[in-house]
Write a structure and sequence with these properties.
The complex is a heterodimer of chains A (388) and B (441). By secondary structure, chain A is of the alpha+beta class. Chain A has helices at residues 4-11, 15-44, 49-53, 71-76, 121-129, 138-144, 184-187, 195-201, 222-232, 245-256, 259-288, 290-298, 303-339, 351-377, 381-386, and strands at residues 54-59, 67-68, 81-89, 92-93, 102-106, 117-118, 133-137, 151-156, 167-178, 190-194, 208-209, 211-216, 240-244. In chain B, strand 2 (146-157) and strand 3 (166-174) form a beta hairpin. Chain B is elongated. Classes of the chains: A alpha+beta (388), B alpha+beta (441). Chain B: Its main location: membrane.
Chain lengths: 388, 441
């Protein structure tokens, strides 16, 4: 550390070049920050402690096939089950059938199983008391500029209401806030309505539910409980498939697209380019300073110190640029979300992404600094001073 | 004051640059070709043009001595172009697959306010009314070319997944008229399913996604076992589906006599308005009528925009990185050649030809980068198969498509990056005082 001023002076020797190099590093890590957040959120989806404790039971035939209501009490009796709730697709859309919104009709105890969704006591009470009430994710509220207390007209793309049209009217009685920011993109964009109201109003549903969610007492018993639940309806005309929420979400995500591969190859291309750019600049910087390095050696700096000086310089450059880039990415993420009107949600950059980014900065700094540093270390004083 | 003036000058250059880039992005290829021809003519015919050409010639012939640093420009830009073209080709492939599925002279009728086929239901009475609507083409035996179809999302084991890991596939229950309405669907292996039997034919895209899709094998759909009897190919979104007899699908998934949609062939595209009006005016019906091309365009809209937006954001950030890299390299190039350039100016070469020469050199490197990047994207991603959930229910397989248009826009990006990366170093080379450049070593 006592040589910090030396390293700093080296960096400031050519301000334009340092600034330009810094900016390309910033750009690369900005990209890294945005992409790794996405990759991470795909990996983390449903992977929370709560997600592992919850089992999802859906129809074995197809995820759009409903299940009979009678299963509710039978699942509740399976040993190891703490509580069970159910939900149904509503298929809501706002203003245009293509403007679809995640909306479910849910049982009264649905929120008990999802501690990730924070609803204030007052809102919860209002929801319980209002038949036509809905709880709306905060993200959706800001996206469409809705307010608590207003009427909300929604079209259902699947179900007709009591008057035979697809137009439904609800009252917004409260908001859902995501307590777990990693999966926030999901809970923020949801609308929950009463399953009971839904079932009473539509002539098509006839007391069926889309899927059951079960909370188990002990995570290690999940597999056994899942098998027991599926055994209830084995060989009936409504066979079920039960899996942990984490597994269900993971397999759903996998079908969306091979995000990991695409993100990975983009990052690969970015870093290759980055290493090349910075490596070239470092080599140039050292070449230019040949005589200065020779002077350093003449006044008694050992070879090893010269090596460390050059390496430290390249790592410092990387760290400054990298940290700046990731910081900008965390500031830019929400902006992208707002600009695309919620179509793209960039999750906040977590601890994992930060540590990976820092490791990459140090690693790349070492790699690009190595060649010039070794060159500097092996410098022959006499030749260097003579300009040979 | 002097500082203020130079700040103004910088600002003017910056604004000019933005304007030039906007024009560049918007200009079609003939304009750009004309521009190139104009520059070539100028270099051949005028005095300063000839000067520029000879300076550029020197620069380009000595490129091999600066191999390391020039390759940075080339590879940096190649990276940008490759990533950009790859992302855009994904959006392109997705969109093309869905666009090709529809046509202007066929229609799809859904229950009102249904966003996708799978969410709609039409009862038998409505289907009969729709089939008799005016404008529908008729087959040789006089029956209307309209196909009522049942669409369900079926669960099947994914290729390469865990043993009980299921994916979702669109299973379409069709009658014999479906083959006439959708002429592009051809059996390439095995045979069609027989009416009244639990037999399915599998699209070539679905065959790649799911396990057990070989002719003769049994698969489990719903609670029953079905036999795969054929493979079909259509070159569009149908490739991702499974087809079976409508009656059998409806009974397995308890749909009764209702169907999800009616797809019909019109006698010609002009009949659409009349057909739509006839259905809308019929008090017995509450349906939405769209041409199939519009239906599939709507389905692909969101996803295409998302992929495109991501592609352009990623491409822009990378391009910014590459611009700084190119600037760095070209500044260094100009610095090492400061003496040479000053000498040229001392013996009478003007500033402008020097600017043009340095710019030409950078643009040449950029073009090379653009070509390499485009070629890389083409070699790796053209025809690469990806899949995603589409229409809310089933996996859709599509190929990445690196079209000539995309390659061209990649090249345009490359040249734009080269332009910015070369401009400032070139201006510096032209404005550096001759005396001080000659004195410095």
């Amino acid at each position: 550390m006592k040589y910090f001023h030396l390293i700093w002076a080296e960096l400031m020797r050519r301000k334009t070049r340092t600034a330009l190099t810094l900016l390309s590093i910033v750009a690369a890590f900005l990209l890294f920050g945005l992409l790794d957040g996405v990759r991470e959120s795909f990996q983390q989806a449903g992977n929370s402690a709560n997600g592992a404790k919850r089992l999802q039971t859906g129809s074995r035939l197809s995820f759009i096939q409903p299940l009979p209501m009678s299963l509710n009490d039978r699942i509740a009796q399976v040993p190891g089950v703490k509580q069970v709730t159910y939900a149904n697709w509503f298929g809501g859309a706002y203003q245009d059938p293509h403007n679809q919104i995640f909306s479910f009709g849910v049982a009264d105890n649905y929120l008990d199983l999802y501690p990730e969704m924070a609803v204030s006591a007052a809102h919860r009470k209002a929801f319980a008391a209002t038949r036509t009430g809905v709880l709306v994710g905060e993200g959706l509220m800001t996206r469409f500029g809705w307010k608590v207390g207003q009427k909300l007209p929604l079209q259902s793309t699947i179900f007709t209401s009591s008057d035979g049209t697809k137009n439904w009217s609800f009252d917004i009685v409260g908001t859902l806030a995501a307590t777990d920011k990693k999966s926030g993109g999901w809970f923020d964009q949801m609308i929950l309505l009463h399953w009971k109201y839904f079932d009473d109003s539509t002539p098509y549903n006839r007391g069926q539910v889309g899927w059951y969610v079960t909370e188990v007492h002990d995570v290690n018993q999940s597999d056994r409980v899942a098998k027991a639940i599926d055994a209830i309806s084995a060989n009936s005309d409504h066979e079920t498939k039960t899996q942990t929420e984490a597994a269900a979400t993971a397999s759903w995500m996998k079908q969306m697209a091979d995000i990991g591969l695409i993100v990975g190859s983009i990052m690969g291309a970015v870093f290759f380019t980055l290493v090349l750019l910075t490596g070239n600049t470092m080599a140039q910087a050292v070449r230019e300073r040949t005589s200065e390095l020779a002077v350093l050696k003449t006044i008694g700096f050992p070879d090893r110190s010269v090596l460390m000086l050059v390496l430290a310089e390249s790592m410092l450059l990387m760290l400054i640029g990298g940290v700046l880039g990731v910081l900008i990415a965390s500031g830019l993420g929400p902006v992208v979300g707002v600009m695309s009107r919620g179509a793209i949600t960039v999750p906040p950059i977590g601890l994992n992404s930060w540590s990976l980014a820092l490791a990459l900065m140090v690693g790349i700094g070492l790699v690009v600094g190595a060649l010039p540093a070794i060159r500097a270390m092996r410098l022959n004083i006499v030749d260097a001073l003579a300009g040979r | 004051m002097k500082k203020f003036l130079s700040f103004l000058r910088g600002l003017a250059i910056f604004l000019g640059l933005i304007a030039a880039l906007a024009l560049w992005a918007a200009a079609p290829w003939p304009v750009l070709l004309a521009l190139a021809a104009l520059i070539a003519l100028w270099m051949l015919l005028t005095r300063s043009g000839k000067q520029a050409a000879s300076v550029a010639g020197v620069g380009i012939s000595t490129l091999s001595q600066r191999l390391g640093s020039s390759s940075v420009v080339v590879i940096g830009i190649a990276g940008v172009v490759a990533v950009l073209v790859a992302m855009l080709s994904m959006a392109e492939g997705y969109q093309q697959t869905l666009r090709r599925t529809g046509s202007e002279d066929s229609v799809i009728v859904l229950r009102g306010a249904s966003a996708a086929e799978v969410m709609s239901t039409l009862d038998l009475a409505s289907i009969n009314v729709i089939e008799q609507a005016p404008g529908i083409a008729r087959s040789a035996d006089g029956r209307p070319l309209a196909s009522p179809e049942t669409v369900v999302a079926a669960n099947l084991p994914i290729m390469g997944g865990a043993p009980d890991e299921d994916g979702s596939v669109q299973l379409r229950g069709v009658g014999d008229r479906a083959w006439q309405v959708r002429k592009q669907v051809k059996i390439v292996e095995g045979r069609k399913f027989e009416t009244g039997k639990r037999e399915v034919v599998v699209g070539s895209g679905a065959r790649r996604q799911f396990r057990g899709m070989q002719v003769g094998k049994q698969i489990r759909l719903g609670s029953e076992m079905w036999t795969v009897v054929g493979i079909f190919k259509s070159g569009d979104a149908m490739d991702s589906e499974l087809w079976a007899d409508a009656e059998m699908v409806a009974s397995t998934y308890r749909r009764g006599a209702s169907r999800n949609s009616v797809v019909a062939q019109l006698t010609d595209a002009k009949q659409f308005k009349q057909f739509k009006a006839a259905l809308a005016g019929d008090p017995r019906l509450q349906v939405d009528t769209t041409t199939t091309s519009e239906y599939f365009a709507k389905q692909s809209e969101t996803m295409t925009t998302v992929i495109r937006t991501i592609g352009i954001i990623v491409g822009s950030i990378m391009a910014i990185g590459a611009v700084f890299g190119a600037l760095n390299t070209m500044f260094a190039t100009v610095a090492t050649r400061a003496r040479e350039i000053a000498t040229l100016r001392a013996i009478g070469f003007r500033g402008f030809p020097v600017v043009v020469a340095v710019m030409l050199e950078t643009m040449l490197l950029a073009m090379l980068g653009g070509l390499i990047g485009g070629a890389l994207a083409w070699a790796i991603f053209n025809g690469y198969t990806a899949s995603t959930i589409a229409g809310g229910v089933g996996q859709l397989t599509f190929d990445f498509r690196v079209t000539g248009e995309l390659l061209w826009s990649g090249l345009k990006w490359a040249l734009a990056i080269g332009f910015i990366g070369g401009l400032f170093p070139a201006l510096r080379a032209a404005t550096l005082p001759v005396t001080s450049a000659l004195r410095d070593s």
